[in-house]
Design brief:
Elements: H1 2-10, H2 14-23, H3 32-44, H4 48-60, H5 66-78, H6 82-93, H7 100-116, H8 127-134, H9 142-154, H10 158-166, H11 176-188, H12 192-205, H13 210-223, H14 227-239, H15 244-253, H16 257-268, H17 271-275, H18 279-291, H19 295-303, H20 310-318, H21 333-337, H22 348-351, E1 371-375, H23 382-396, E2 404-408, H24 421-425, E3 430-433, H25 446-454, H26 457-473, E4 477-481, H27 482-495, E5 500-505, H28 510-513, H29 516-519, H30 522-529, E6 534-538, H31 541-551, E7 558-560, E8 584-589, H32 598-611, E9 616-621, H33 627-637, E10 643-645, H34 651-655, E11 660-663, H35 672-679, E12 684-687, H36 692-695, E13 705-707, H37 713-729, H38 733-743, H39 745-757
Parallel strand pairs: 1-2, 1-4, 2-3, 4-5, 5-6, 6-7, 8-9, 8-11, 9-10, 11-12, 12-13
Helix pairs in contact: 1-2, 1-3, 2-3, 3-4, 4-5, 5-6, 5-7, 6-7, 7-9, 9-10, 9-11, 10-11, 11-12, 12-13, 13-14, 15-16, 23-39, 26-27, 32-33, 32-37, 35-38, 38-39
């Protein structure tokens, strides 16, 4: 019988061999070696069906081997069934297998989980478990390298992923995919210029990646506000033979709503435009439109019998756009194009079918109570430092730390999102990293699920994660910090029917900041401003007024919640008097991004060095996409001995060497660095934008210098040179007293509590 099985397998008659085994009653539980031989032979011979059948028979007979499990897991993965593959591997090898093949396959399973739900919904392994799983694994093919690198990347292990890649470039010098993986990691870690260089090379070297690379470059150059390069890439894309789907993507990247509408209208009219699209392309078009909030355009396509995805159909039906439904399906393209998400969901309370609130709701909230404070991250920035300072101020005012929960959308170490984490941990509050937090019960009430599915993708994930946390912690007050958290937190506040929601902008309006993606959310901001239990705040009167004008609100619709400075943490005695022959240190503390105008700062300080009789040194503390351009500009302008520190966050390190702080931002709210520097007794020169004038001591000999909002570096250097000697010699106590009086912790906490209770005058 064995010889017969071998003969059939040698002749590649695998199905006959399987039938012979069954007819001869040679069952897998009694003769596992014969069935294993058949499985291996069929696998090697390319007959997946028989190989899988033989392995399944062994599995059902409970007589599998490690190799059988590995082959079965591979079979399921080739059919995009990562759940079955993971089940087989877990059953045979456990959660932490020693077998290298099994570990690589488990990595593929986890990667497939992530790709099935990119927003982080379906993940099994924690960040630490991913590192343990991949520890010591050697990779022999490009596919294995990409599996390991991608899983490390998605788990936030960016440095480890880069190390893996660097070791493979020599082994696979001609595979551009590995270098593009490096570009994506550099982009995620903030090295935008490094990513750009790789994509530019790929566009020139590999025609296969030319269109994709240009789209990627377009986004990166827009991120850096490099208009000349944006126009160059757009010209290249327009000059290439773009498919309909790519033209749609280009219009969305450029935020050309009118072009998007024109493209969809042409598609809905049928004819050659529609005939040129495959079914899969039509499905992808509908998914993209849904993710960008073009609900009305999808309604129109569906009405015109253009194929849309099942997800789109479900969303439209659940939202009430179905035969006999409560919403009217538009009968013209003009009506359809005006239906956008999230606006078509307004008012949210009605869409969620919430019961009407009684008159006078919610009334005053009794304090202290459980509060949830939300921010995007704890990266090195003034708003993030202020976020931690807010927690400190509340605790110093007597608020119990065990009643303060803090949620961050990311604390990724490799991306610099945890710079102030240790400071926050010392306060004893509960901290939740929403990017890593596992949601045990992912089920949602039907109304919440329907709302989420109809929202644009940039809101969807944030809202779901925060909603689950709110349901678990049950805060009385939700306080969201900066725009990303404001948008998601505002919707969660309505959906969870919270008693008090405070949304704190930390800068000027998106229109003033020229942040187009946020400007498109104007209706959402305005919706929040009309909620009775919401308080909208800015940290300056200038910022509040700017938001009110943008949203067409009455004066006073935005409250002010000024910054808080812990006076005890910033000490004038850090700075020692200098001899006349010693150089003065001009310091800049800002993100190295276009809005902070670091290149203007470099030109100004270079000119100041040139015209000053006293030697000057220059130091910058900060990180960001313009780092390399700043270094290049320093060389071109002759700025001597510029020191740039990208990781500093300790107050003493930031301020102890400074003799003057120079800030030349294009847009600001109330800059924290201006307050902190003055608390250290340091004179400040800054451009008159946003709330800078409100933050600057402007009396007496030690007053700060208010430069014009738009200033030439030569004129700025002259003004600083004239102001600097008296400012350096002035009594630092005047600056400290100004900060203590206007921005002390006690004043901040008292104002915050007024907002939390609802008793705002």
């Amino acid at each position: 019988m064995r010889e017969k099985i071998v003969e059939y397998c040698d002749d590649k008659r695998f199905a006959l061999a399987q039938l012979y085994l069954l007819q001869s009653n040679l069952l897998p539980n009694d003769h596992p070696s014969l069935w294993s031989f058949l499985a291996r032979s069929a696998q090697d011979g390319g007959n997946e069906a028989v190989a899988h059948g033989a392995r399944s028979a062994l599995w059902n007979a409970n007589v599998w081997t490690g190799q059988i499990a590995i082959e079965e897991a591979r079979y399921y993965l080739t059919r995009n069934d990562h759940k079955s593959a993971a089940f087989v591997l877990d059953t045979v090898f456990g959660d932490a297998p020693e077998d290298t093949d099994a570990r690589l396959l488990l990595a593929r399973c986890e990667l497939a989980r992530i790709m099935a739900d990119p927003q982080g919904g379906e993940r099994k392994l924690t960040r630490e478990q991913v590192a343990d799983l991949l520890e010591g694994i050697s990779t022999n093919t490009v596919e294995e390298v990409m599996t390991v690198v991608d899983l490390l990347r998605f788990a936030g292990h960016y440095e480890s992923a880069l190390e893996r890649l660097e070791g493979t470039f020599e082994a696979f010098p001609d595979d551009v995919r590995l270098r593009l993986r490096k570009a994506r990691i550099l982009e995620q870690t903030g090295d935008v210029l490094g990513a750009i260089l790789i994509w530019e090379d790929a566009v020139e070297a590999a025609e296969r990646y030319r269109t994709e690379g240009r789209f990627k470059l377009l986004g990166l150059y827009q991120r850096m506000d490099r208009d000349d390069d944006v126009n160059r890439i757009v010209t290249k894309l327009h000059g290439s033979d773009l498919r309909f789907l790519e033209r749609l993507r280009l219009s969305l990247v450029k935020r050309q709503r009118g072009v998007v509408e024109a493209l969809v209208e042409s598609l809905s009219q049928g004819g050659a435009v529609l005939e040129e699209q495959s079914h899969d392309e039509l499905i992808e078009i509908s998914e993209i439109l849904l993710d960008h909030g073009f609900v009305g355009l999808l309604l129109w396509l569906r009405r015109r019998r253009v194929a849309v995805s099942d997800r789109v159909k479900k969303v439209l039906d659940q939202a009430g756009y179905h035969v006999g439904g409560p919403r009217e399906v538009p009968d013209s393209f003009d009506k359809a194009r005006k239906i956008r998400s999230p606006e078509f969901l307004f008012p949210f309370a009605a869409f969620l079918d919430q019961d009407p609130r009684p008159a006078g709701w919610p009334g005053a909230v009794r304090l202290p109570c459980r509060i949830l404070l939300v921010n995007a991250s704890l990266k090195a920035g003034g708003a993030e430092r202020q976020f931690v300072e807010m927690c400190r101020s509340l605790i110093q005012s007597g608020w119990p730390s065990d009643l303060i929960d803090v949620a961050l959308y990311s604390l990724a170490q490799d991306r610099g999102h945890d710079v102030f984490l240790q400071d926050l941990e010392k306060l004893g509050v509960s901290i939740f990293d929403l990017s890593q937090r596992k949601i045990v019960n992912r089920s949602l009430p039907p109304s919440i699920g329907t709302m989420l599915s109809a929202l644009p993708v940039d809101l969807r994930s944030d809202i779901e994660k925060l909603w689950h946390l709110v349901e678990e912690r049950q805060p009385k007050v939700l306080h969201c910090w900066q725009d990303r958290s404001m948008l998601s937190g505002g919707i969660v506040g309505i959906a969870s029917n919270l008693e008090r929601v405070v949304l704190s902008a930390r800068n000027m309006s998106p229109a003033t900041r020229r942040e187009i993606s946020l400007t498109e959310r104007q209706g959402l901001y305005a919706q929040f401003a009309h909620e009775a239990n919401f308080a909208m705040t800015s940290n300056s009167r200038a910022g509040a007024s700017d938001y009110e004008k943008w949203l067409r609100l009455e004066d006073g619709a935005f409250q002010t919640l000024s910054n808080s400075v812990d006076i005890e943490r910033f000490r004038p005695d850090w700075r020692k008097p200098k001899e006349q022959s010693e150089p003065l240190c001009i310091t800049g503390i800002f993100r190295l991004a276009l809005n902070k105008r670091p290149l203007l700062w470099v030109k100004t300080v270079a000119e100041l060095q040139r015209i000053s009789d006293r030697p000057l040194e220059a130091r910058i503390y900060g990180d960001g996409p313009l780092l390399r351009e700043i270094e290049k500009m320093a060389q071109e302008t002759g700025l001597k001995n510029l020191v740039i520190k990208t990781t500093a966050s300790n107050p003493k390190e930031l301020y102890s060497r400074a003799d003057a702080l120079l800030l030349m931002s294009r847009v600001e709210g109330v800059p924290n660095v201006v307050l902190e520097a003055q608390a250290c007794g340091i004179p400040v020169a800054a451009c008159d934008v946003g709330g800078v004038s409100e933050a600057l001591h402007q009396e007496g000999k030690g007053r700060g210098l208010l430069l014009p909002a738009e200033v030439d570096p030569i004129e700025a250097a002259k003004a600083v040179l004239e102001w600097l000697p008296d400012a350096v010699e002035a009594d630092p106590e005047d600056r400290l007293a100004f900060v203590r009086r206007s921005f002390g912790s006690a004043a901040f906490a008292a104002r915050a509590m007024q907002l939390y209770s609802g008793e705002v005058p």
